[in-house]
Design a protein that fits this description.
By secondary structure, the chain is α/β, with parallel strands linked by helices. Among the domains are: 3-91, SH3 type barrels, CATH 2.30.30; 250-430, NAD(P)-binding Rossmann-like Domain (Rossmann fold), CATH 3.40.50; 437-550, N-(1-d-carboxylethyl)-l-norvaline Dehydrogenase, domain 2 (Orthogonal Bundle), CATH 1.10.1040. The protein has 19 helices and 18 strands. GO terms for molecular function: DNA binding; NAD binding; NADP binding; nucleosome binding.
């Protein structure tokens, strides 16, 4: 058992962020899963989740020596549940070990007893036989001689045979599932870690079969620990669809960017409309994973790069839809989404029975419901699938996809979702994904405004902004998002990773969603005003972190 301290490097800025340590168990990867190149690493299952990841050797720490230290650092409920799972695992393991040891000793005693009885019985029979033979020989001495010979044979060979039978156990050879403590599979690591750790040595590989193979081997969490450009590794051709209590389902892919290298691309023709910050990364990953993609963008020049990568060019949205089986779209706002479908040469004109349309734009539930109705009225199939992430995550194939609508279409999009994201959730009927996406972005936008407010307050009160960031990065708020956005502000670099104008749009729509159900959203409303102020300062096309400038002007 190991605590896993996962270190993720921000390659764009050379800064380090740090995930909290988490307990895990080394297991063997699926047969078709290749180990990442470079430093030695192991495939680890995390307690308290069904997640797996490749972890470098230097990021592993033994459980027991670091247990108390890690519990002090991590006080979250999920972490405590993970620790409880570890302790339960150890209790069960201890019970199995004791039972196994007891059974082994009983079997040994039974076998020894049986051998002793056999020895006595055989000796008695031979003694009687030799005496009888001696009587028949009538004192010739032959019988006595033979008895002596037999006795000598027993005396010399039997101890040797017993030594051969018993020597492995006298030397402490464990049962089959315990042998070779250098194999870091679950059944051995747990035994090593409940005793001393000093003698444990890392093996050259983890190719030995895992006897307690995990039933959730195809359920993964993408945890990027290497630079995306060099992380292409085969993960799995299957994804597990897990029903949750809420009725939603999730598909989770695996460790690293286009690690999705083993994806079997659908044989369906894919269309994609909209090559903005998010759409460009999505299309790039679809092409890398072997999908056949036809692209269209309002500004045609943006299509050129993808044509060079193997995409086909569609002249209008209608043409793309009519020539493809599944067409995805990712545009900026509700108006753009409606114009794309209902406008001249729009999506609707290409829809006919069986054609599929997937809208990945972040819009309100009313808009997406209207689009679903007109698509379905023409015999088409509709799925909403807005994405959570930013430009970097889009490029890395690490988006989170929230889907709702046609469940069959959701499953048909499986290979596409694996190529573009690390996780996808199916949330039920049309409109649910739009609502969830707005809530997610409302939280994110409000948090960003609070970060900017804290940094400016530190500045005006004579405190170091860098020290504030260092403190936050050591506390419970530590995250990639926090560190990245604070670095943007400290370096004055507001190159867009998520446009400020779009997060303000999402806040506005989230506030309207709250109004529609008479639910107060005062925090989002306050943040929205700050973003509006930033827009007035001509920050719309900068990154959302440029909201900082609303506080210093």
């Amino acid at each position: 058992l190991w605590f896993l301290s996962l270190i993720l490097t921000f390659f764009s800025r050379g800064k380090l962020g740090r995930y909290p340590p988490w307990p895990g168990k080394i297991v063997n990867p699926p047969k078709d899963l290749k180990k990442p190149r470079g430093k030695k690493c192991f495939f680890v299952k995390f307690f308290g989740t069904e997640d797996h990841a490749w972890i470098k050797v230097e990021q592993l720490k033994p459980y027991h020596p670091h247990k108390e230290e890690m519990i002090k650092i991590n006080k979250g409920k999920r972490f405590q549940q993970a620790v409880d799972a570890v302790e339960e695992f150890l209790r069960k393991t201890k019970g199995k070990d004791q039972a196994s040891s007891h059974n082994f000793n009983e079997e040994k005693n039974r076998r020894n007893s049986s051998e002793e009885r056999g020895k006595q019985s055989t000796g008695e029979e031979k003694r009687k036989a030799s005496l009888s033979e001696g009587k028949l020989k009538k004192g010739t001495g032959e019988g006595k001689k033979r008895v002596s010979s037999v006795s000598s044979e027993r005396g010399s060979k039997s101890p040797l045979k017993r030594a051969q039978d018993q020597s492995p156990r006298k030397r402490g050879r464990p049962p089959k599932d315990e042998k070779d403590l250098t194999i870091p599979e679950s059944s051995t690591v747990k035994r090593v870690m409940t005793g001393t750790v000093a003698g444990f040595k890392w093996p050259p590989s983890v190719s030995e079969p895992v006897k307690d193979s995990d039933p959730h081997f195809h359920h993964f969490l993408l945890s990027q620990t290497e630079k995306p450009a060099v992380c292409y590794q085969a993960i799995t051709k299957k994804l597990k669809v897990c029903e949750e209590e809420t009725g939603s389902t999730s598909i989770q892919a695996a460790d690293s960017t286009a690690v999705n290298g083993s994806i079997t691309p659908t044989d369906k023709k894919i269309g994609f409309l909209g090559l903005g910050l998010m759409g460009s990364g999505i299309v790039s990953n679809l092409l890398k994973m072997g999908h056949t993609v036809t692209v269209w963008n309002r500004t045609a020049e943006k299509c050129d790069l993808f044509i060079q990568e193997g995409a086909r060019l569609g002249r209008t949205p209608a043409e793309v839809v009519s020539t493809c089986d599944i067409t995805f779209a990712c545009v900026s706002d509700p108006k753009a989404a409606k114009d794309l479908v209902l406008g001249p040469s729009g999506v609707l004109q290409g829809i006919r029975p069986g054609k599929c349309y997937v809208d990945m734009s972040t819009v309100d539930a009313d808009t997406v419901t209207e689009l679903a109705q007109v698509i379905v009225s023409r015999g088409g199939r509709f799925l909403e699938a807005p994405v959570s992430g930013n430009q970097q995550l889009s490029n890395d194939g690490m988006l989170v996809i929230l889907a709702a609508g046609d469940r069959g279409l959701y499953e048909d999009c499986s290979s596409c979702f694996q190529a573009m994201g690390k996780t996808s959730f199916f949330l039920g009927e049309v409109g649910n994904a739009a609502k969830m996406m707005l809530i997610v972005n409302m939280v994110q936008g409000s948090f960003m405004a609070t970060i900017a407010e804290g940094l400016t307050l530190a500045q005006v009160t004579g405190q170091s902004q860098q020290t504030l960031l260092d403190i936050l990065n050591q506390g419970q708020l530590a995250s990639i998002f926090l560190d990245q956005k604070c670095q943007n502000i400290l370096q004055g670099n507001f190159k867009p990773d998520f446009y400020l104008k779009y997060i303000q749009k999402d806040l506005r729509l989230a506030i309207a969603l709250g109004d529609s159900v008479n639910h107060p959203t005062p925090m989002a409303a306050a943040a929205n005003e700050v973003y509006k102020r930033a827009k007035a300062l001509d920050q719309s096309d900068n990154d959302m972190s440029a909201v900082y400038r609303a506080y210093i002007h």
